[in-house]
Amino acid sequence: MLLTLISALVISFAVTVWLLHYAHMHAHLTYDAHEHKGPQKFHAQSTPRVGGIPIFAGLLVAALVSSSIAPIRWLWWVIFIVCLIPAFAGGLIEDLTKKVGPRERLLASFVSAGLAWWLLDARITYVAVPGLDALLAISIFSLLFTMFAVGGVAHAVNIIDGYNGLAGMVVLMMTAAIAYVAFKVADYQVLAVACGLFGATLGFWVWNFPRGMIFAGDGGAYLWGFVLGVLSVLLIERNTTVSPWFPLVLMLYPVWETLFSIYRKKMLRGQSPGEPDGLHFHMMVYKRLVRWMIRDPDTHVRTQRNSMTAPYLWGMTLLTVIPAVLLWSNTAALMWVALGFVVVYIWLYRRMVQFKSPRWLVLRKNSWHERVAEQLVRHQRKKHKLRTQKDIGTPIDTNTLQ
Questions:
Q1: Which of 154, 203, 282, 375 is placed for a possible disulfide with 225 were both Cys, Cβ 3.0 to 4.6 Å?
Q2: How many CB atoms sit inside 10 A of residue 130's CB?
Q3: 164-181: string of b/e by CB count within 10 Å (b at 16+)?
Q4: pLDDT in tens, 162-200
Q5: CB-based contact 83:112 (threshold 8 Å)
Q6: φ, ψ of residue 292 in degrees (nearest 5)
Q7: Which residue stretches of the chain have pLDDT < 50?
Q8: The model's pTM
């Protein structure tokens, strides 16, 4: 499995380098210009948003390697990739054309989930909830619920993909957790796919964080979410010792973010859940907690502030990933973990919205966080052979930084 991971990492890394090196040839298709304003635009310069391509390439190579050295039939991998294509293609077409809406992308992920239910037997039939389990014993309800769950996870990952390194590291944590549990129960198909996804994601992520040289885009986000969703379903359906609440708790941050956003938009603000706004949890962290040099127009400073947001959300993710890994077979304990996370999320979100953020979380001027960040910015300026205002006594022309 290590060879599968390394192969996916190398290919993903190499394809990302190729995309960046020849960016001038595809910029008219792949770039997300920073001049395009919107409630969910926080990058400081034009950036390619086709990181899904190297991730998909890495996963393909992982399929070739694992089918040749592991007890996994190549036909199973072919079916898996076929199921993945609608979700990935829907996102990638949006990255290239900017003409595929969220409803169409969600429907594409539903199609992928339906194919997985049919062709891979990725079926949710038990969730440890009385009444619902009886319905899931009926095939049509199982199909609809599986499509909703897997498609919902794909859409949820896309929602949290807003800052440099955020979604990529969250996916790495979740994939590692699934790989660990798959190893414990000797499910080598799930383990092989998890290793491939981990390597492919890592090969892309090193270019995405902290400088944001390339974005995963909708193609990458929907690929991540679909693969995580299907692996979770396969894991709990094949292995009765794995709690059905393990994947829910593992992915609770993006899932709850999506459910809470639907409630907030529809019930509190009276707007369509598909309409973008600037009030997602990760955006509130950026606006209320990452207060370092908030009005500085310097491109390097803005990029640095963008990257400082992700670690806050990594911490939120660990609040569920660690308990999920430790309690993967204990349904009752996982239910309590889920409840605790929801309480913490709502409490912190409310504090941020009311401008009452906990002071120990706020990244302010003259804090130790700022000193570290300033050192990073100085390093970036030195790399571009620029001097600070203190060195030459005159302001820097910010246009030269772009």
A1: 154
A2: 7
A3: bbbbbbbbbbbbebbbeb
A4: 888 999 999 999 999 999 999 999 999 999 999 999 999
A5: yes
A6: -70, 120
A7: 35-36, 38-44, 387-402
A8: 0.85
